[in-house]
Amino acid sequence: MLFRSNSDIITESFSSCEADTTATNAAGIAALAQQAAAQGITYVVSTGDSGAEGCDDPDTETVASGPVSVNVLASTPFNTAVGGTIFNEHGQNSTYWNSTNNTEGESAISYIPEDVWNLSCTSGNCASGNNPGIWAGGGGVSIYSSTKPSWQSGVTGIPQDNARDLPDVSLSAASHDAYVLCLEGSCVPNSSGEIELFLVGGTSASAPSFASIMALVVEQVRVAVSNTGQRVGLANYVLYRLAAAENGTLSQCNASNTSGLPASTCVFNDITTGNNAVPGEQNYGLSTAQYQAGVGYDLATGLGSVNVGNLVNQWNSVTFNPTTTMLSIPEQSIQHGSPVPFTVVVSPNNGTGTPTGDVSLLAAAHNDEAAFNDSVGMFTLNASGSIASSTSNLPGDDFLLEAHYGGDTTYAPSDSGWASVTITPEPSTTIVSVLTFTANGTQLNFTSGPFGSFVYLRADVAALSGHGTPTGRVTFNDTFGPIPGGNVYNLNTGDQLNDGSYTVTPNGILNFDTDTHTISASYEGDFSFDPSASTQALTFTIQPGFFA
Questions:
Q1: Tens of pLDDT along the chain (548 residues)?
Q2: Among residues 146, 153, 183, 186, which one has the least CA distance to residue 168?
Q3: DSSP states of 238-266 as a string?
Q4: How far is C-alpha 315 from the geometric centre of its chain's CA atoms?
Q5: Is the dihedral of CA 51, 56, 59, 60 positive or negative?
Q6: What angle is formed at CA 42 by the lines to CA 212 and CA 419, rounded to 5 degrees?
């Protein structure tokens, strides 16, 4: 099985309560994120819109009843978690906004102070324009962490809690400063010259907004290294290093300060006002609520919001020790279903030390070195910085393989050279069945019945190795003559679930002629599986009379 990996950046705006998630499911979520990072994909996830109460629904609840919890989808060590901020003009709108747009459509005069996004309130204490609810930026501590990620260190304010803390960064998420969207051609003027705009908010908007910023970073990185295929991977390695460089100047980067703007040199706008406590949470409405904004990193907004220009322009100022990745495949032709052995060695270009982390084995079918679009799997370096393993995930074809090392806090990502391998087809088996169903849906083998009986022809195609799923067509044959409705069907179509390698005549055949029929089936094969035919034909009889 190959996993598609065309994208440099993935953004996800769904949320699921970590406290209600089993350790097994959380590990599965983390494994998918780890695979993305190993492939060099930057994975951006929203932290949720119910503040510290990640188990509650801001769309339906006005008072949280669940435990303090984070979004489990954002809580892995392999993604960038994005929380929310809100503009706070402190009633001085004219200081930050012009009453009309300039020629480029801009009305903002300067940077606008930001606080933690928290519009939650109870019915008795809502500020003007706010409805009762638990709307606030997600953040907090993951319960499925036993160690803090290596990259989450070095920044003022990071808790010493041996856990993965959220968020990493934040962007505007409030309806107060909503994002303006055009959907399905809504910004094309109608016959009256009118257009329709949509306003959206929440961390579901701030996460893809940060992903678009990371797209600018990817382009900057590619220009710097003159490599159109270069990927950034896990952004947190660089984000926290850039933030650590501002430890001594945090007072100049205060984003909640009404007496002055953050310095023009700041990469991160440090949010120092507010919290993400919501109604129903202990100490809601008090300065003693659990997750307060503060100097440097905090569990309400992470490192803060970003100065996009500075982030993009300074990204390459963070350097890592260069590495070399070597991939070796000793066998160049292997039958499908047999393991393909390989070794990977990642070593520093200079000095001593051992790179750590993960390697993704990437494949380009038909020996197309221009497009390594598929991941064969993710593998973790051992203590010597190497991997000796095998994979059975390649389908039949000619492949070029490449190993991508995702990097760590010390060592830079690198790609190996190409190694070729040909996966030849393996034998398959085809078994034919003739079936019918009772009125209550019970499946039976069909041997005889009157004219008009429901008859289903089924062919099961299996791989001897158990790896992969045969594709292509099956042809049914009847010694009596042509099969009503046709005799050629694709595997994994018709009425059956799309999870097995079999085909069935879609709706049953009602008009087999009266007589004896002998059915066989043949499979045409594909890149991974040789053709095969059923070795035992099945006979049934259609009797005179009519099915009742």
A1: 445 556 899 999 999 999 999 999 999 999 999 999 999 999 999 999 999 999 999 999 999 999 999 999 999 999 999 999 999 998 899 999 999 999 888 899 999 999 999 999 887 778 766 778 899 999 999 999 889 999 999 999 999 999 999 999 999 999 888 999 999 899 999 999 999 999 999 999 999 999 999 999 999 999 888 877 788 999 999 999 999 999 999 999 999 987 888 999 999 999 999 999 999 998 898 889 999 999 999 999 999 999 999 999 999 999 999 999 999 999 889 999 999 999 999 999 998 899 999 999 999 887 665 555 678 899 999 999 999 999 988 999 999 999 999 999 999 999 999 999 999 999 999 999 999 988 788 889 999 999 988 899 999 998 888 888 888 899 999 999 999 988 998 887 544 433 457 787 777 888 899 999 999 999 999 999 999 999 999 999 999 877 65
A2: 153
A3: HHHHHHHTTGGGGGGGBTT-SSSPPPTT-
A4: 23
A5: negative
A6: 130
- DSSP sequence for 322-371: -EEEEEE-S-SEEETTS-EEEEEEEEESSSS----SEEEEEEEETT-TT-
Cβ-based neighbours of 137, under 8 Å, separated by 6 or more = 47, 48, 49, 51, 83, 84, 85, 116, 117, 118, 167, 170, 173, 203, 276, 300, 301
Query: How far is the C-alpha of 425 from the C-alpha of 429, rounded, in Å?
Result: 13
SS3 29: helix
Cα 445 from Cα 62, distance rounded (Å): 58
Paired tokens of 257: 């300060």
Tokens of 265: 């040199």
Residue 154 backbone dihedrals phi, psi, to 5 degrees: 85, -5
The C-alpha torsion from 234 through 238 and 240 to 242, rounded to 10°, is: -160
